[in-house]
Amino acid sequence: LPQKHSATGTTIFTVMSALAQQHNAINLSQGFPDFHIDERLASALGRAAADGYNQYAPMAGLPLLRQAIAESFQKRYNVTVDPDTEVTITPGATYAIYTAFTAILSPGDEVIVLEPAYDSYIPNIEMNGARAICIPLSAPSFSVDWQRVRNAITPRTRAIIVNTPHNPTGAIWTINDWNMLADAVRDTDIIVLSDEVYEQLVYDDRQHISVLQHPELRARSFALYSFGKVYNNTGWKMGYCIAPPALTTAFRRIHQFLCFTVNTPAQYALAQHLAHATEPIHSIMQRKRDHFLSLMAHTPFTLHTPAQGSYFQVMSYERISDMHDKQFAEWLTKEYGVATIPVSAFYSSGHDDRLIRFCFAKKEETLEQAVERLKNVP
Ligand code: PMP
Ligand code: GLN
């Protein structure tokens, strides 16, 4: 059978979650909350099905949900989004990223990827016959080396994919990063894919800056979102894409023949839930991050920078071992019963800074039990 991409083997999230299960370990590897969703959202889903909203929704998504998304962006970012021509509902952000790539890439194109990078980006680029040009972010702050980005641009560069707040490092972009990106792509046809799935998870009074708030970049960007990260329902696999009308048209041209339309009762439930007042998810998650970090101070793991955003905290095990990170993560799961993600899994080259990623989107008691185990690590 043809090899459609260069990533051999199985995604690290499947590998580590399976290993956690096999060894009865506490799973701080794959990013998903282990607590219940808002009861009102759960009952809205049941009600939508009982009320008969069970047939195909329109191809672009339920107008009610697209309208609610547009209102939310107006309110939260002061940006005007046209729900008819700029918003498309998708079965999750992973799908939206793939669809955006497929809408714009031709064989031989190049796409700039900043590493560490979410593990679907490069396979998605390669499935479209294009090539990823990888540029490492600079540890320990994981900032972008803009000179290297500018040097990587060639006449074949079709796109760049960026991610803020960032998985796995928790770094977030400032307005300066967006301005530097705008400078780098100004005289090119490069399209920006802006993965903003953790937009609502930023800490210490920081603000997420969306590509949609940068008018010059917005005109050439797909912005990709996931409801899973906002409502703690990653298993619903619901997301959306916001892009200017011409890019949205190209996106829907692919979407209509990939899955055509998305789960109808889930769209109804989310549309209703968007209007509800709830405690901001960043406050809930920041308490978890802070609790996790104060507990981890009693272990031999070392912290470079507290996560500015996302579900994740990267830590070093330099005081414990000089094993490779994949080997270390496996050992920690088997011997100490805590599963994490080795950060080298986010590099195409296998680049290994001896870092592992913890997911803190968990019940307090889960975090406490995990740290009790980690305290035993010599
Ligand atoms: N992008 C990043 C950076 C992610 O961490 C994830 C995983 N949650 C996704 C995209 C995919 O989101 P979804 O589950 O909605 O497909
Ligand atoms: N985004 C989540 C993570 O980084 C998991 C997504 C997945 O399992 N593919 O852990």
Automatic annotation (TrEMBL):
InterPro entries: Aminotransferase_I/II_large, Kynurenine-oxoglutarate_AT, PyrdxlP-dep_Trfase, PyrdxlP-dep_Trfase_major, PyrdxlP-dep_Trfase_small. This is Pyridoxal phosphate-dependent aminotransferase. Keywords: Aminotransferase, Pyridoxal phosphate, Transferase. The keyword Transferase applies. Pfam families: Aminotran_1_2. The keyword Transferase applies. Residues 25-374 form the Aminotransferase class I/classII large domain.
